[in-house]
TrEMBL record, chain A:
Protein name stated in the entry: YceI family protein
Cited Gene3D superfamilies: Lipid/polyisoprenoid-binding, YceI-like (2.40.128.110)
Organism, as annotated: Flagellimonas algicola
Positions of the Lipid/polyisoprenoid-binding YceI-like domain: 50-175
InterPro entries, sorted: Lipid/polyisoprenoid-bd_YceI (IPR007372), TTHA0802/YceI-like_sf (IPR036761)
From TrEMBL, chain B:
Organism in which the protein naturally occurs: Flagellimonas algicola
Protein name: Nucleic acid binding protein
Amino acid sequence: MGKLLPFLVLIAFNGFGQVATKSIARQGHVSFFSYTSVEHIKAENNQVLSIVDSTTGEIAVSMLMNAFVFEKALMREHFNESYVESDIYPKATFVGTIMDFDPTLEGEQTRMVEGRFNMHGVTKELQIKTKITRNNETFILSGTFETLVRDYEIKIPPLLAGNIAKTISVDFNFECMPYEN
Amino acid sequence: MARRYLLMFIAIAVGALAIVGYRTLYPESRNILKEEAVHQLSAQLLFEHFSEENGDQFIDQAIITTGKVTEIDQQSIFLDHKVQINLLDTPHSEIQVEDYLTIKGRCIGYDDLLEIVKIDQATITN
């Protein structure tokens, strides 16, 4: 995380003083789902920060793990205290680039976003198929991807192994508005 | 007769255990408004705690904070430019920039990208 922060700040504030068009979603939406025969678990986070630099196609996402809302209080407690250890790793971040992004294209375009996702102290390279919709000055980025729990060194006690899927489905939606720093 | 009382006692005991067990396994979600605030401080002071890496004590706690509304967007308001508040019910049309507000909510942490403290499940208390 410490290594990623300067890069995030660089995208956010364009530290080299170049002219760039940045858009921001302060309250982006990320939800994840775990389906097993024993239990369905869903959590939503509507406080996700996302910044897109449309001139370079760079994107940075930052979310506080504590902001995930669960249906049951106990699920939230397990998630924060035992699985993602949000007191030690309070944030998850993604830093990447929208490949072949055309910011001038009005309407929809589907692009691959390639970058590094950091959660629970583990960084993984991800490629995420993303739908980008431009509506005047607003970019809406949305998509779904799947990820493995074991990739992020999250330890599930054997007793609860049947309650939590090995593959978690993640949905995201960021409505990025023009950002003037 | 004694057997009937015994059966009634067992039925009540089993029922009580089931209720206690269910509430232990599936406690109700938090209602921040009903919780007693653990901390009360200005929005500026709350921000300073986090910017000096001394904010862990506030995370996931019910807190009361006060400040001037500096920005209102679709889903949140900002106090003193530094604390982002996600209100539960109050329509934003009832709030004006420059209003002084006291809010009670759950502090979810600090985003060092934009250098803001985030509070959700908030209610205006003044």
